[in-house]
Amino acid sequence: MIKILIADDQTLMRDGLKTILDLEDDFEVVGTACNGREAYELVKETNPDVILMDIRMPILNGVEAAKLIKGEFKDTAILMLTTFDTEDLIVDALACGADGYILKDIDGDRLIQVIKDSYNGDIILPARIAAKLACRVFKTENDTVQNSMDLNSFKITEREIDICKLLCEGYTNKQICDQLYLTIGTVKNYVTSIYNKLGVSNRTSAVLFLKKINIKASEKK
């Protein structure tokens, strides 16, 4: 059962999303919020797996809420909702730890699949947004990292190195399971451990970081 929280300041949007998602046997909408602050408080109460978060909300917007939530609940997937392709806001949200974004005119079947993908650890991200995020990350994160650093500096284990390599090749959590003969829960635990050791909050930042320190040249002998 995938637990979902919906945060949007439009009542019609919240109710519409809840109606669609409640039809799925493996989904449970555990709460709805009308602003980012309320979403944060509900996360503490309901511990959702996935949050559908509107970018533009009163009191606390989606970007600020995503940063706040990811600071305490790194395993909670956050999908940003937007009416327009507002790239700067989307990049800001992703830089704060959001796991992807979707337009509000997405059809129901695609929405259901996207939620399942994000639950399994996939990033929902168009190429042009990924490119802008890459530039942002390189400018703002890990400025003190030198090219000579390797994974030994971060106490990365042999198994975590295997997973790091697959992350850099674009493997999803499910594909990593199949490749390394691990359960999805085990892979998620490894990925979370890698995030913590590298000091990043999401998959995109982890991959960019690993490529920056040249993981292939850093493998333990």
Topology:
Elements: E1 2-7, H1 11-22, E2 27-33, H2 36-46, E3 50-54, H3 62-72, E4 77-82, H4 87-95, E5 100-103, H5 108-119, H6 127-140, H7 158-168, H8 173-180, H9 184-198, H10 203-212
Parallel strand pairs: 1-2, 1-3, 3-4, 4-5
Instruction: Report the count of strand segments.
Output: 5
The DSSP helix count reads: 10
What is the quaternary state of this protein?
A: single chain
What class, by secondary structure content?
Answer: alpha/beta
Q: If you consult CATH, what is the topology of the largest domain?
A: Rossmann fold
Q: Quickly give the CATH architecture of the largest domain.
A: 3-Layer(aba) Sandwich
Query: CATH class of the largest domain, anyone?
Result: Alpha Beta
Number of domains: 2
Strand order within the widest sheet? Answer: 2-1-3-4-5
Low-confidence stretches: 143-148, 216-221
Task: Explain how this protein is built.
With 221 residues, the protein is of the alpha/beta class. The protein folds into 2 domains: 2-136, 3-Layer(aba) Sandwich (Rossmann fold); 144-218, Arc Repressor Mutant, subunit A (Orthogonal Bundle), CATH 1.10.10.10. It has helices at 11-22, 36-46, 62-72, 87-95, 108-119, 127-140, 158-168, 173-180, 184-198, 203-212; strands at 2-7, 27-33, 50-54, 77-82, 100-103. A 5-stranded parallel β-sheet has the order 2-1-3-4-5, with helices on both faces. Helix 4 (87-95) links the parallel strand 4 and strand 5 (100-103).
